[in-house]
Amino acid sequence: MIEGVYEPVEHHWFHCEQQVDCKDSWFPFSREDSPRLEEAHKYGMRQFIILLQIIQIALEMVVATEGRRFDVRLKERRRYAVYWEQPPSEVRRCSWFHKGDKDISYTPYPEHTSLILEEAYMISVTLNDWTRKLEFPTGETVVLHSRMLMTQQQTIPSKYWISFPSASEQSRPRTVKRGLEGISIEIPEGEPYQVDHLVFMVHGVGPACDIQLRGVVQCVNDFRDASLSLLSSHFKQSQDGAHMGRVEFIPINWHRVLHGDATGVDEDIQRITLPSISRLRQFSNDTVLDLFFYNSPTYCKTIIDTVASEINRLHSIFLQRHPQFTGAVSLTGHSLGSLILFDLLTNQEIHNTDEKIVSSKQLTKSTSINFESFEETLRNFGLGKFFQMLTKEQMDLESLTLCSETDLKDLGIPLGPRKKIMCLLKRWREKQESRTGTSQPVPGVQEQPTLLSDAPSTSPVDYKYFDIGIGQVSIVYPQLAFQPQAFFALGSPIGMFLTVRGLKRIDPKYSLPTCKSFYNIFHPFDPVAFRIEPMVVTPGVDLPPMLIPHHKGRKRMHLELKDSLKRVSSDLLLSISTLRGAWQTLTTLPVNTLPPVASLGTTAALPPQESEGSRAQNGTVSPTEMKNISFGMLNGGRRFDYVLQEKPLESFNEYLFAIQSHLCYWDSEDTVLLLLREIYEGKGILL
User: Fold this and answer.
1) Cystine design at 192: which of 245, 428, 429, 631 (Cβ 3.0–4.6 Å)?
2) Could you give the CA distance from residue 677 to residue 234 in angstroms, rounded to a whole number?
3) Which domains does the chain have, with CATH numbers?
């Protein structure tokens, strides 16, 4: 730095975010986004001057930032989220900063204030005059002492000193800095531009997703940040070779729509809620009731439609913003969100040219429409001539039951035949109601062999005859605009819900119609999570879930110690049993038949029951037995139950950390690494 020579300040762009304590915090844009914003700003200024001279209008510049998840409108100085609803945040082109003694970070001055400070600094440098004070209408006074020392003084009128005990602290000078030099601030490097894979993440019950009561957007942001960190540390060689980019994670929020003004459900529930223990009841209404809403036909339809439409809408927006994207898409659901996705995926349809396979029925009772029986039914009611008209609209008797008289009128069916059809449908519904709530098979629908075992015979409800074969609410399930590569269930109650719906076993041949990979990931202390592999493997096979490796490449120390102690105790018990057997042999044999002393030191082959018992106690299965176990086609013949390793503190009291265990997946690096490993394994990229 040459004395008396002014050098322009380097600007860096910041955006403001409101924290939990309602205080505004300023965060820098990455080293990639800030130069792009600066370049667009300078270009916009040049265009503004030209256009102002010609047609007197301003040019609006929009810059995509942070992995193209946000748009910055330079004219407004606002940052807008693209994939989720979020209030726009302020954006500043920053060059001057201030910080108090008790502040954690520096706060940027407004842009007009920075311009005034920069002009005064330029004059002071040029004239070598450092006795300059700048007073602002807001009461601050900035003093330029030298190039390296600048302070801000808050002027407080003397009449307020008595009423404000902390006025002396308020009047302490604040440190002022020019540019980012000398400021301790972490500026992110930015994200790879290339997106290899897209993952939609669906939350569970309630508006809060983790122990900090944050929403799904904040939790997915942390999940994405963890994936970027693990990609740079575990896949560094592939990233350096430009073979891979990153994985994009986008949140899906259905709770906001369900509890919004459109449904009015919150007002209805509030009218019948008791006034006592109001906070607990409010928490229950916001969270636990979501389970009951999902089992209601009305609100289940709202939830399913919201999830599917949001996924399709955001998928379309993503493709528009990433036109060169050629990767696959996966789905992730937490808690109830995993059940929502499971039900949605079991009801996806595969279209093979002219043939449509109704996959929602395949899970327990696959059905195909027998058009001859449909035509026969219409002829029996004197409606045979309308068969061609209905089949032209791809209608069968099952879809006909969903039609109203207005729909039939729109098809051009006269009044008389319309009344006959409505009478036919009314008789069929009455026949259903006469079976005490169980639904009859639709006339004209030919039953095919089940892919899942039937419900228990002791069940008072015959799930075999539900319209959706696994006891799901009978609604019209929407279709996704893509076929997912994988489905990751986190802390999922899918196994429990399938069992409650009346299912004992999943046929090993069954797989999700449009998704060939499935992973059930859970924490060992999660009270909501259930296993699914026992519903697929041969009954009686007790196989522990797959242990998810620690992201640092080894098993946690306390688990290794526990395994070592278990092996030592097992060996000790084995030695004791061996000595006991030898002693019993010595005491029961006659003296003249005692074996030589040398043979007593050899350990003869253990009884079969001993080795098998110890092996079962250790929970291990031999490689030969593993080859004979079928894990079904839910994950392409591979295992799909994966358990996290509990932390050392959690192992002291599993009840104390039960709730936290259900909410731990969003910031679990082990979970993130498992997703990345499975995603990139399909691309031939291994750790």
Assistant:
1) 245
2) 10
3) 12-159+169-178 (no CATH), 195-345+478-560+632-682 (3.40.50.1820), 374-430 (1.10.150.50)
